[in-house]
Write a structure and sequence with these properties.
273 residues; Rossmann fold; ProC C-terminal domain-like fold; 2 domains; 11 helices; 8 strands; elongated; cytoplasm; EC 1.5.1.2
Length: 273
């Protein structure tokens, strides 16, 4: 359990109870980086906050009390609501570590609300729920070494924990934040193929999911370029190259690139509003 000295345990406040907030709380519980009784959640929909309390053992309260009782405040609100939330609670947030998950809202824009705010901008994806996600982050100007240590001790176990340049965060958001949905669709399509070939649906889904999981692991843990790994399972005149040729003829590679870039363009729109 995290302790910030003098036997005072850190408290994490979470404003918002949507999918990302839930994924992060689940990951923290799984990683044991912070006891869930030291997490306080607020949400305009009280039932959603209550469900998180029931499922994970977190506490609930209203926004102002969550902020006052917390050392770190995770703002898991929609991009359109972030700046107004900062403006409303800026005085209460001044001595807190403030973490934003909002896409498209820069640290500069957040610090315009109050230049003394201690802000960390993060871009996690939903697999942080099982501690196998991506947790990219950018530190604001007022974040000091102690803040970084506190932040890391809570969130570094949720997956790939990586500091990036803020100019790259929108690209990271699109590549890692949106892609789980695309991967799920691919797994679903693979399982459809399995069913067409006579496999039971549940087995087809399990096999497809494990094939994707293992293939990603091969790239990640071996450091081998995916094209090299692809060639290793592609025999001359074999069944794999037959399938690859079909994927190319259907423009799958181009469709994937286009889908990710469309998501990137949409993310950029948030910062222009």
């Amino acid at each position: 359990m995290l302790d910030k000295g003098e036997n005072k345990v850190m408290v994490l406040g979470v404003i918002g109870a949507g999918n990302m907030a839930q994924a992060i709380i689940a990951g923290i519980k799984k990683s044991h980086s912070l006891d869930c009784k030291n997490i306080i959640v607020s949400n305009y929909n009280k039932q959603k906050a209550a469900r998180l309390s029931e499922e994970y053992g977190v506490l609930t309260d209203d926004n102002i009390n969550v902020i006052k009782k917390s050392d770190i405040v995770l703002l898991a609100v929609k991009p359109y609501a972030l700046i107004s939330t900062l403006e409303l609670y800026q005085n209460e947030l001044l001595d807190k570590i403030v973490i934003s998950v909002a896409a498209g809202i820069s640290i500069r824009d957040m610090e315009k609300v109050n230049t003394r705010l201690k802000i960390i901008r993060v871009m996690p994806n939903t697999p942080v729920q099982i501690c196998q996600g991506v947790f990219a982050y950018v530190y604001g100007a007022n974040i000091i070494k102690e803040d970084k240590e506190i932040f890391s001790s809570i969130f570094s176990k949720l997956g790939m924990f990586i500091e990036i340049d803020e100019s790259k965060i929108d690209a990271v958001s699109s590549l890692t934040g949106c892609s789980p949905a695309y991967i799920y669709q691919i797994i679903e399509a693979m399982s459809d193929a399995g069913v067409k070939m006579g496999l039971p649906r549940e087995l087809a889904i399990s096999l497809s999911a494990m094939a994707v999981h293992g293939s990603g692991g091969m790239v990640h843990f071996t450091g081998t370029h995916p094209a090299v790994l692809k060639d290793k399972v592609t025999s001359p005149a074999g069944s794999t190259i037959e399938g690859l040729a079909e994927l190319e003829s259907k423009g799958v590679r181009g469709a994937v690139i286009s889908a990710l870039y469309k998501a990137y363009e949409k993310t950029l729109l948030f910062s222009k509003k």
